[in-house]
Specification:
Layout: E1 12-17, H1 20-31, E2 47-49, E3 55-60, H2 65-70, E4 76-80, H3 81-87, E5 92-97, E6 103-110, E7 122-127, H4 130-139, E8 143-148, H5 155-158, E9 164-169, H6 173-177, E10 180-189, E11 191-196, H7 197-202, H8 204-221
Parallel strand pairs: 1-3, 1-4, 7-8, 7-9
Antiparallel strand pairs: 2-3, 4-11, 5-11, 6-9, 6-10
Length: 222
């Protein structure tokens, strides 16, 4: 761990994603000397101070991180590439792949079905990644009737609600246990550092210092 206190000219707010990404982000931040001054597992504070006086953290749902950064409520954020693909990169720079929380964004369907489309030109798809799914099936020349769900995607084909799903796949164990199998890879996913474009201009020296420190930490981690 880096014991050097980072000196920044400007105040910065970093939006972090709850869950697995947060757990894998905190060691990287600690490597550059940024650690929360609260136990994030027990604290109910919405904005958390850190060991760097000018840096604070806000812990959000993954889908909200790009929104906070895009609108300048946070100067920087750490979000999965899936969220960036879904919500777009307007108003955001993406200077660094942190290489953490790796997974795949894929289509999947019942393992008993053929893994090709069999010439179908219309398919029912359950997903929370509406924009990603729409673009994927359009590239294939297929019309997708999209059904938005927020969880338990594997259930949709089993209950006859959808033919396929578009979802994050990590080990594939959950799919297999529910009689499902991955089909097509849409994108390799990892967590990215994102920066508000206005903050990059107005707080450039501080943002650049943090980007360079995190880049070094990622390179050291391999």
């Amino acid at each position: 761990m880096n014991n050097t206190v980072m000196k920044l000219e400007h105040t910065l707010t970093i939006a972090l994603t709850k869950g697995r990404i947060l757990k894998e982000t905190l060691p990287l931040l600690a490597e550059v000397g940024i650690t929360p001054q609260e136990d994030l597992d027990s604290s109910r504070k919405l904005i958390v101070a850190t060991t760097v006086p000018n840096v604070s953290l806000v812990i959000l749902r993954g889908s909200d991180v790009p929104t906070y950064v895009r609108h300048g409520a946070a100067d920087l954020g750490i979000a999965g590439k899936d969220m960036l693909l879904e919500f777009g990169g307007e108003g955001i720079y993406e200077p660094l792949d942190l290489g953490i929380a790796r997974c795949r964004l894929m289509t999947a369907g019942p393992a008993s079905d053929s893994q090709n489309d069999g010439g179908r030109r219309r398919v029912r798809v359950a997903t929370k990644f509406m924009n990603v799914a729409r673009a994927h099936y359009a590239r294939k020349g297929m019309h997708a009737d999209l059904i938005k769900l927020y969880g338990s995607m594997e259930l949709a084909p089993l209950m006859g609600l959808a033919d396929e799903i578009v979802d994050i796949v990590d080990t594939g164990k959950t799919l297999a246990e529910n009689g499902m199998a991955p089909r097509e890879l849409i994108a390799e996913i990892s967590s990215r550092l994102i920066v508000n474009k206005a903050s990059m201009r107005t707080r450039h020296s501080s943002v650049q210092t943090l980007v360079e420190a995190l880049t070094a930490a990622v390179n050291t981690a391999g």
